[in-house]
Specification:
Elements: H1 5-8, E1 19-29, E2 32-48, E3 51-61, E4 68-75, E5 81-88, E6 91-99, E7 102-107, E8 110-114, E9 121-122, H2 126-132, E10 140-147, E11 152-169, E12 172-183, E13 186-193, E14 198-207, E15 210-215
Parallel strand pairs: 9-10
Antiparallel strand pairs: 1-2, 1-15, 2-3, 3-4, 4-5, 5-6, 6-7, 7-8, 10-11, 11-12, 12-13, 13-14, 14-15
């Protein structure tokens, strides 16, 4: 395993572009899939307190798994976290603001500051960071993460599994890296288009014989 992200390489989101994306959500039970909703993503460049930043707004709409919106803001040059806001059914649920002293979290009427040491990333920014990593066969990486909704640090382990030819758009297929990513004990798979810096698909096993999948159609 390679060293932590802070020691092994300089990570920058400069290669990303402003974009919008939409995926359908499928629940797959023992091989049988059912569409249960959709998710949208908007990436735009913003300026926060004099810093060039990237804002990612992800909206999830589903009668089965609920309606959520997450807004993640990271520094464009370094991918360091600036803020994360989680909305549940239209109302702010969690607000996290990162600074030199750590992360300040507000959940409803409760507030606290948690001290963080060294280089760390917001776990909700990993789906952006994966797109700018130098992915290749055999690539692996460890990162220190923080999950604001859990109010806890999380070890992140990234490993390229293989290359796959998958759908990018209507009648368009491209080669993408299938990336295995552990957030602590939770496993997610992502398919990253290294040329267009896009997240094409993601999948996670949420129960015995039960898989949740986000993909373009």
């Amino acid at each position: 395993m390679e060293k932590s992200i802070a020691q092994s390489m300089k990570i920058s989101a400069e290669a990303l572009v402003e974009t919008e994306d939409e995926k359908d959500i499928y629940l797959i039970e023992n091989g049988k899939e059912t569409k249960v909703g959709s998710t949208t993503e908007k990436i735009r460049f913003v300026r926060i307190n004099g810093r060039e930043a990237i804002e990612r707004v992800q909206t999830l709409n589903s009668d089965i798994i609920g309606n959520r919106k997450g807004i993640t803001v990271i520094e464009k040059a370094t991918c360091k976290p600036i803020s994360f806001t989680d909305y549940l059914n239209g109302s702010p649920h969690v607000k996290a603001e990162y600074g030199d002293e750590g992360v300040h979290i507000k959940i409803k009427d409760s507030e606290k500051t948690i001290k963080l040491n060294g280089y760390y990333v917001d776990t909700f920014s990993v789906e952006l960071i994966l797109r700018v990593l130098p992915l290749r066969s055999g690539f692996s990486l460890q990162m220190n993460g923080f999950n604001a909704t859990l109010e806890s640090e999380v070890d992140i382990h990234i490993q390229v599994v293989e290359a796959e030819h998958i759908k990018r758009g209507f009648d368009e297929f491209v080669d993408a890296w299938k990336v295995k990513t552990y957030f602590g004990e939770i496993l997610q798979y992502y398919w990253i288009d290294p040329v267009n810096k896009e997240l094409l698909k993601q999948s996670s096993q949420i129960g015995d014989g039960l898989i949740l999948e986000f993909r373009r159609e």
